[in-house]
Write a structure and sequence with these properties.
Blueprint: E1 95-96, E2 101-105, E3 110-111, E4 116-117, E5 120-124, E6 128-130, E7 133-135, E8 151-153, E9 156-160, E10 165-167, E11 170-172, E12 175-179, E13 187-189, E14 192-196, E15 201-203, E16 206-208, E17 211-215, E18 219-221, E19 224-226, E20 230-233, E21 239-242, E22 269-270, E23 282-299, E24 316-325, E25 328-335, E26 342-363, E27 370-371, E28 373-379
Antiparallel strand pairs: 1-2, 2-5, 3-4, 6-7, 8-9, 9-12, 10-11, 13-14, 14-17, 15-16, 18-19, 20-28, 21-23, 22-27, 23-26, 23-28, 24-25, 24-26
Amino acid sequence: MTKTVAHVFFAIFLCCGVLFCSCAKVDLVEGDPSSDSDSDSDSDSDSDSDSDSDSDSDTDGDTDTDGDADTDTDSDTDTDSDTDPPACDSPPDDVCISTTELAQYDDGGTWNGTECEYDFSTIICPYECDTGVCVDDPCLGIVCNSPPPDECISNVLWSYYSPGTCSGGICSYPHTEAACDSPPADTCVSTTAWNYSASGTCVVDQCEYSHTETVCPYTCSLGVCQGCSMGANVALSATGTISSGSTDQVTYGPGRLNDGGLQSGCGFCWIYTGTSYGGGAYFRYTWSSPQTLWGMWVDTEPSSGSGCAYTSGRGLEGGDVQWLSGSTWVTDGTVTGMSNDWAYYQFTSPVTTTSIRIYNAYSMSVANGLIFEWRVYNCS
């Protein structure tokens, strides 16, 4: 398709009392797109300053041989305010807002014109929040079955046992506390009795107790020296004496204590006694050499009477059984409430001595208690 171009030349002569003229040539091209109004806001302030100092000798309108010097200044400024906002895809690190709460930020945020804003969710940690994460249970997989060894704390023994409990990844164990006041049971080492003190001392991880050792002359059981078997009657070799009473050694004196006769012969030894405990009256045996004794038997008046004259109610009801240790009398036991013979009295443990006695002796109901025969047995 051929466009028709119409060239219109306008020669405008402006003369204002001067010898200069300005000539503006405007080409109008019909159908030329450059003649359209551009919707862009372009401000072209082209200033064409042409100084023509030559004379045109154009023979036709086709050839322009002027020496125009064209100076164009284009100050077009294009201001584009269409700027895309940031992506807001770099949320801050999650953070602990308490020991059990985690602030967890969304991946995408919103531009508020100045900065990116990110929403967050509050997560409740089942165990603990630490450095921006919920940590697992520190006790997971831990089995508390290895208690620490026993230890002494202020002279008290702490004894630990399992199972224990875990908290924060650390096992703790229950324990018992025992003051050192439970000594081991007395025992025997061969024929030696070991007797422990009632209180001890806690050392490192156990209570320690001191003990005494006693060599038993016979046997030992459960920390106690055991008595021997009943042996022979050694009263026959002893010398009898009394506190006060009959001095007739033949009929009613101390010689009757070990003459081998019994109440059937009605021979007896009597002393001044009351009918109640105390007063210091006694019957006594003494040997020339130490004797190891098992026990004794006393033949005295029965409460029903023996049939012997002057004996009713004078039976020996009680007294202290004592043995001589060096120069000291040791009470082995006290007998009370007897209404007939003392058969048999056994020493708590065998005693080795040169003398024994029945001290603080008293009679059943009538003063001046009596003994028909007093036998003493050694250890066999």
